[in-house]
Hints:
By secondary structure, this protein is α+β, with helices and mostly antiparallel strands. Helix content is 45%, strand content 16%. It folds into 3 domains: 5-96, Integrase, DNA-binding domain (Double Stranded RNA Binding Domain, 2-Layer Sandwich); 99-192, Tyrosine recombinase, N-terminal domain (DNA polymerase, domain 1); 209-308, hpI Integrase, Chain A. Residues 98-179 form the Core-binding (CB) domain.
Amino acid sequence: xxxxxxxxxxxxxxxxxxxxxxxxxxxxxxxxxxxxxxxxxxxxxxxxxxxxxxxxxxxxxxxxxxxxxxxxxxxxxxxxxxxxxxxxxxxxxxxxxxxxxxxxxxxxxxxxxxxxxxxxxxxxxxxxxxxxxxxxxxxxxxxxxxxxxxxxxxxxxxxxxxxxxxxxxxxxxxxxxxxxxxxxxxxxxxxxxxxxxxxxxxxxxxxxxxxxxxxxxxxxxxxxxxxxxxxxxxxxxxxxxxxxxxxxxxxxxxxxxxxxxxxxxxxxxxxxxxxxxxxxxxxxxxxxxxxxxxxxxxxxxxxxxxxxxxxxxxxxxxxxxxxxxxxxxxxxxxxxx
Length: 337
């Protein structure tokens, strides 16, 4: 006779454990402390086995019968219900450990050996900011194209169109790593490549050679901070980037050896970048030494000596012979307006 809820609720523990049978291998095992456990007995490959289904009332009578029926279907197809349950448990555990964030951490660890510390940190920070809030806790094998699309559309919505491509590239790389390590089968970032195009960069015109002498003459006459004027000259003499000069530290300079060693981390390189210093450059540095030699930076911020000069402070205005006013600042090895 099949069980009913009243029988199950009224069943009391005895001196020894006993069973209440529901039929076809399903029964309720009641132990001496009153615990009521659903079990299913079956035979597979000539061996008697027992499948633990769960505890009553957490698992109801209806749910226990459904679980037993599922086990019978597995047996009919030649599968062992106990092994199937263990496999399902392993898959659940894998889904928890193989989240997008965890896979991304593995990918980043393998990749960062070829990156400078600063660049590796920026890559991870971009994932923390734009990707993990939406995808971080999801099993990597279950993430859909639509979910990745929502991430890059959110980045685009705040106007960071140039960042979209980098974010999508990093998401795509994480999925490629997941596929390579057999934690995913598809890459939902691939169909989205090119969906949101970054705006074409507008290259600003460089200072023509014909205007260089006039620019230098006006630079010397400019009512600007002496630090700014020297910075303008040094960028022309050293051919370093804007940020590299503004972030230059006195500890990086060997004035006796006429060399400036820029740390690899600042250059996104594996080795320091050595900049030879010409006599004119050394003269300018000697002048700067008198002005800022007490500071960490060559060009410390006026507002905060613990920081370096901002890009805004490295701007000079002058009127070219045609009467047109331009603002010039240094960028990479060129002067742009």
